[in-house]
Amino acid sequence: MRTFVLRRLLQLVPLLLAVAVLTFVLLKLAPGDYLTALADNPQVSAATLDTMRHRFGLDQPWTVQLLLYLKNVVLHLDFGESFSRHQPVFAVLREGLLNTLLLAMAGAVVTWGLAIPLGAWAAARQGTAVDRTLSLVAFIGLSVPEVLSGLLLLMLAANTGWFPVGGMRSLDWESLPLAGRALDVLRHLLLPALVVGLVPLASRMRQMRANLLDVLRLEYITTARAKGLDERTVVMKHALRNALNPLITLFGYTLGSLLSGSLVAEIIFSWPGLGRVTYEAILSRDQYLVVGAVLMAAVVLVLGNLVADLLLAAADPRIRHE
Amino acid sequence: MDRRNAILTGLATLLVLGGLVRAPCAQPLRTPMREPGVPGGRFVIGVTNDARTLNPIMSNETSSSEMSDLLFTALTEFDNIAQKPYPVLARSWEVSPDGLTWTWHLRRGARFSDGHPITAEDVLFSFAVAYDSTLHQSIYDLLTPHGQKMQVSAPDSYTVVTRIARPHALLVEAVGSLRILPRHVLERAWRAGRFASSYGVSTPPESLVTSGPWRLRQFVPREKTVLTGNPHWFGVDARGRRLPYLDEVVFVVVPDQNTATLKFQAGELDGIDNVKAEDYGTFARNQASGGYTLHDLGAALTSNFLWFNLNTVKQPGGRKPLGAPYADSVEYGWFSSRDFRRALSMAIDRDAIIRSIYFGEGVRNWSLMTPGYRTFFTPRTTVPDYDPAAARRLLARAGYRDRDGDGVIEDANGRPVRFTLKTNAGSTRVQMANFVRDDLARVGIQCTVAAVDFNTLLKNMREDFDYDAILAGLGAAVPPDPGMCGNFYRSSGLSHFWNTRQTRPETPEEARLDALFGELLRPGTLAARQRLSAQLDEIVDDQCWVIWLPTMKIKLPVRNRFGNAHPTILPQRLLWNIETVFVKPQGRR
User: Phi and psi for B558 in degrees, rounded to 5?
Assistant: First the structure.
């Protein structure tokens, strides 16, 4: 088990290098650089732009820029500086990371907290009105774009005053007692988490329903029923656990997309997360910031999959990682 | 103690006290305002982005510079209502008869937020940093009139002398663009080569020493920035009470405009710096119930226009020979005809664009100096405005006719007039381009709209010149003076879009533009400079090098409980006088 984990972590190194190179090349293939946007300012002369381009090293061929970058990363673990903020890349990214994780985790709680019981319920009542209503609701949730559901929820918040209109904290958050602070963040978290969580709900719910139906058709369930166990015990105790296995793999993917899944919600709800930093960095061609953000997402993706593998091993004694 | 001694002691005390009062010779700034206010309260403004740096020399975009402009003072500031500079840290100034030597008298008793006096040393230091060639400052061009650095010296602690080689009309504005930094805090970092990362957003608020009315209380990335009054700021009101009045100005980051609107309607914001034209109606309707006023600021400072690619090859070694046009030779033939360009301008129904894209909240505009530039806007009479019949006549006279009856006109050589109009995707300009396409179709011209990524568009217009026509625009000139638009008017300019960076003017009209612009930069009376500005625009309009399109009107909501709050069209719309804004006593919560 330990060697398995170690091997997976070692695989990260070449993977991250490849990701860095690929991101860099893609950025360079796209037209323009960080200073192109500044050239749109009618007050900046061509000569000043040339000087600035030289200072940023953007006048060098991109291959030279890439090699310099890789050299700094490998030799000094220096991931460069953000052009716009004059700060090391990870100092910029660190700020948003926790906020994004918080939102994404809350979204995952919404997704899985609803998907498992509702999926199981639909499977147990297969073909009934309950089953059909649940799938209808789930698919409506799937087809409404996040932008729309987000804005509708914000309109609700603005008109009723039940929830704050976006943001992560109240203005006077610092003056609240500890419990008040947690409650305040929770109040702000609820609506965006709902928006983030509702998107994958339909597919997870259907997955759960299908898995449970598969299991319910197995012979040991027939045995259990023949034994005279009541349906509730059959489903809850005997079928549910086995039906969850494939979902654990899916949960690993959810972990992997933690950093990227909530961009739209972050923008609409003014959530101070990583998605917005990355998005703005791409738009403004803040190149080292973009590469840093992609690297971070890659690390989280690999770790997420690793966690999923470990969870699977823990849940299913038949699986052992050598 | 006998009586005489008591009197003597009393006299001595009086003398000492009087001396103490007079010794620092404080010269506070009497800040102009409509009504005196009362201290306290907070103003919450919604902004789309937070600052990337609080270092005024290193900022490259408005979200950073608008913040650092509040934190750091300058020799002069801009009065957004009168649209002219007024003295701030410089109490007064004079200029030598030849217009080359400017002497600035600094206010005595001015202090940084840590209590350290602001002297000529700090001004010299700020100039030195702004002129440091190892940094990358975007204000460099503004501070180098006629392309040359000023010579700056300080004969004493409260006098600064700047010398320039040739007289310049915008020298006061240029000097005013330099924010004053604390030498005693930053000099060491500068000498050690760490200036660029100094005063970044992660600087602890207490170590960010400011010279302006405000200092930093808290910066929470992508959430909010809180400014609080600088207790040592030298601005006072008419009663001598220190400014700013407000305890706090809070910038709340709201990236999405719809969310900002909802947040304002819910009462979480006191003002927003950006509202979509389609929302003006909603905002206007709810004014009474929401306790706010939607201020009509008039036409925006941004202009929209389209132009044709008349660029020629300026550097040898490319695929095309030196001097050859980048555009296809047939298209270049059409585009270089003044009549062709004028006919196209007359084919465009600008009122329809205003109605549909700006919901009626726009104006027709014929210059970079939109009606928003109060000092330099000149109403125009002879403009190639909408007149489709005249457009058709003009085209027919120039030999463009629909010879094969397919609805598309052909030139004298029988080639159908077709071209592509590029603009940046994801903006209202795409809708505008679609209107242009439909209007041109009505006079028989087939125009295809291509919406491309903004950076691609910039590359096309500045580097590879791979386009037929582009619909774009220019942002606000700061300070609001045509003298700031040299890149557009001058034939050598980067934003002389239709044929950029000419080594020498390629047409007599462009030579005339260069000459007029040179005169505009020379100091002169306002009337003379206004005339020059109008003359420049007459040439551009007469040649129709750019086809002007409408510009939108700006309206911003501000809560009524704030006194002295009157937003203006110039940058810092809501914040330009925020140090005088106060909460009206009946509006306190």
Answer: -135, 140
- Which is nearest to A82 in space by CA: A74, A73, A92, A72? A92
CB pairs under 8 A between A and B: 148
Q: Which two tokens stand for residue B156?
A: 């004493």
B169: exposed, middle or buried (C-beta count within 10 Å: 0-12, 13-18, 19+)?
A: buried
- For residue B134, the SS3 value is coil
What is the rounded average pLDDT for all residues in chain B? 90
Share of chain B above pLDDT 70, in %: 95
Contacts with A167 from chain B: Cβ below 8 Å: 223, 252, 254
List beta partners, residue B104.
B93, B160
User: How many C-beta atoms lie closer than 10 Å to residue B80's C-beta?
Assistant: 20
pLDDT (average), residues B303-332: 90
For chain A, the residue count is: 322
Average confidence (pLDDT) over B382-399: 93
Residues of A in contact with B58 (CB under 8 A): 86
Q: What span, in angstroms and rounded, lies between the C-alpha atoms of B499 and B188?
A: 46
- Please give the structure tokens belonging to residue A141: 């949730």
Burial of A175 (0-12, 13-18, 19+ CB in 10 A): exposed
Cβ pair B223:A168 closer than 8 A: yes
Neighbours of A317 (CB within 10 A): 7
Q: What H or E segment, with its residue span, contains residue B562?
A: strand B562-563
Tokens 């000092």 belong to which residue?
B375
CA nearest A81 in B: which residue? B197
Dist CA A309 CA A314 (whole Å): 9
The arithmetic mean of pLDDT across residues A286-312, rounded, is 85
Q: What angle do CA A201, A203, A206 make, to 5 degrees?
A: 105
Residue pair B303/B547 in contact by the 8 Å Cβ criterion: no
Yes or no, beta carbons of A270 and B136 under 8 Å apart: no
ipTM of the complex as predicted: 0.79
pLDDT of residue A152: 92
Among A251-265, B124-138, B324-338, B465-479, the minimum mean pLDDT is found in: A251-265
B580, B381 Cβ separation under 8 angstroms: no
Helices and strands (H and E) in chain A: how many: 14, 0
The residue type at A20: A
Query: What is the three-class DSSP state of B317?
Result: coil
Say if CB A57 and CB A288 are below 8 A apart. Answer: no
Residue of A27, A35, A38, A44 to mutate, testing the B interface (most B Cβ within 10 Å of its Cβ): A44
Nearest CA in chain A to B462: A39
B268 phi, psi to nearest 5 deg: -80, -15
Nearest Cβ partner of A158 from B221, B265, B487? Answer: B265
Tokens of B153: 């010296």
Distance in angstroms (rounded) separating the CA atoms of residues B447 and B441: 7
Cα separation, B211 vs B75, in Å, equals 11
The b-or-e profile of A284-308 (16+ CB within 10 A means b, else e) is bbbbbbbbbbbbbbbebbbbbbbeb
**Which residues in chain B are closer than 8 Å to A55, comparing Cβ atoms?**
134-136
CB contact under 8 A, A87 and B455: no
Show Cβ contacts of residue A299 under 8 Å, excluding neighbours closer than 6 positions: A12, A16
Q: Specify whether the CB–CB gap between B73 and B179 falls below 8 A.
A: yes
